[in-house]
Amino acid sequence: MKEIKKSVCLFCSLGCGLACRVVGREAVAIDYDRENPVNKGSLCPRGYYNFELLNHPARLTVPSVRGNPASFSEAFSFVRRELDLLDPGAVAIVVSPLASLEDGGAAAALAAKLKTRYLCVGGELADDDAGLGAAWRLAEDHPATLEDIENSDQLLIIGDVLTRSPVLSRRINAVKAKRGKITVVDPHRSHTAWFADKHLTLKPGMEAVFAAALVRMLSGAGEGELSDLANKIGLPIESLREVAADFSSAAAGTVIVVPSANKRRNDLLTYFVRVFAGLADKKWIVFYGGGNTIGLNALFNDQQPGRAHYYELAKKLKQGVIQGLILLGEDLSDLERFAPKLLIGSRFFPPKFKNGVCFPQASHLELEGSYLFSGSRNSRALPMVPAAGGRGIAALLAELFDLDVEAAKKQAAETAANMVGEIFDLGTVINEGTKLEPLPDYPVENVTHFAGNDLAKNFFWYRAKG
Amino acid sequence: MAKRVYLNLDLCCGCQSCAAACAYGHHLQSLLGHAEPENDAKLPLHCLHCDQPACAAACPNEAMKKMADGMVLRSHLKCVGCHSCELACPFGTIQPDLFKHIAPKCDLCFDRLAEGEIPRCVASCTSGALSFAEVDEQVVDVKKNLGSTRLLSNYLGRRR
């Protein structure tokens, strides 16, 4: 007997609806959730990975200790023994942006128990960086919802949003259909640029300066300063003026920011875009690569003020300060080259690293949890099929570290309920340690959603494309 | 008249979710190719299910067959993977990739149509560029689409 079960897709922060035809324990085909207001049944290629993950033959189903299969109790005792030898403050926790808020709450409780500052959301480094910019306290700007994008007369898109979230093209087409103006700012002729009425090809890496120039333009800077900025950006000053004038005179407008792998631009870009949107009385939105990046960042900022972000973590790893790494659902096997003494992972697929412990993970389609997306919606995903040998992050941490997970989960759910609608006001003041410094030697270029991601590489669609 | 899949060039964002949906619905063989005009775009190439199918005429083993409802279908068992249909197709919709020695050929997801659903590629389209409509309606739309900014900007801009 076939049933149709619904969930959400977590591969980007749009939060599309997902439906599967399920027979018994197995998901047999993708169906289309036409009632979901976000995607109205459509699904991008990455959305289909969700389906393939459920029955993937290569999935990890038993823990592995130093590359050998082991039982859960053996793996637990190994971790406890090794962790006793380390300074708990030198243990870093990286949580996957695909984790639910309840799982994030458990990770925050673990960080509090270990008294470590190193607690961050994984996924793309660029996303964590943009999250820093989104965490500044500003009074006058307003985050946009997906409906605001659809209702805009002017869209200013910085970056290639359609490669990341193709399903958004429905909304961009709606703006086009009513003769709204779409300006795309991107050095490349990207997919998003096809939709542009005006495509500004600025010098690579100058997006933050571009946003700063718009701010200066609205706040009445002198001619000399503006032409200096325009020279740096590589665009004629007239086109900058046109963008600023068009955008501030429109009835409704939205700035869409896409964090990119461009080092150290995203927090400044997000910050300046927020100031610009506030000055022009328009809205702004950041499209993150990971489904629950917004929710987890807000939750961690709330529960662990003064936590270290990715850049600090990468720097401390390189210096050898961090001795243990706990990667919860995260896929950063590259970090092993910094040779921490202990690596604990929780993953869908067998790990590349050899000197640690890896637990099999249950996906969000097998568990229940709540998530926050770009539209600030707090969706609760329900399990589709029973878990195939894996465990959820919260359940794993509860048993491994003897945490009171129920209290943490409850606290996370309460925080999440308060976050809807005012999520962006929860931000903390930007971390003192995140001044403009060159990034430590870390292969940022590889951490885009396809290039460095084993999760995606394990699937048919990626393999077929070579 | 029969319903066919139609692409609006102006709306397509080239995300290839139609091809992914096709692959997941057809034993991981995508029956849907993509054209890359001048490497600028990726536009899906759907089978037109011609009235006088050249692919069926070229097939040495009668694997391609025009059905009573107008669909041109390929038999899994009869296809020998000889590429004749690929060479015969005037629209390039039959792609050269073979999967288990069978040529890819759009079947309009007849299993979904039987359930009263629409083809998978149309259901999964993220931008609303693909539609499944009567041929007559589509011809009207094609006339509307002649002033497509996408094509003009892509090609005229290049010639300049």
Overview of the molecule:
The complex is a heterodimer of chains A (466) and B (160). Chain A has 466 residues and is an alpha/beta fold. Chain A contains 18 helices and 18 strands. In chain A, strand 2 and strand 3 (26-31) form a beta hairpin. Chain A is globular, with a radius of gyration of 22 Å. Chain A starts with a strand and ends with a helix. Mean pLDDT of chain A is 80; it is low at 421-452. By secondary structure, chain B is α+β, with helices and mostly antiparallel strands. The A-B interface holds A 29-30, 32, 39, 41-45, 47-48, 51-52, 162-163, 166-170, 172-173, 176, 189, 191-192, 194-195, 460-461, 464 and B 10-11, 13-17, 19-21, 23-25, 28, 30, 40-41, 120, 123-128, 150.
Care to give the gist of this entry?
Chain A contains 18 helices and 18 strands.
Structural class label of chain A: alpha/beta
Global geometry of chain A: globular
Put simply, the count of helices of chain B is 7
Task: Assess the beta-strand content of chain A as a share of residues.
Answer: 15-25%
Rg from Cα of chain A: 22 Å
Number of strands of chain B: 6
Stretches of chain A where pLDDT is under 50 for at least 5 consecutive residues are 421-452
The quaternary state of the protein chains shown equals: heterodimer
Q: Which consecutive residue ranges of chain B, at least 5 long each, have pLDDT under 50?
A: 152-160
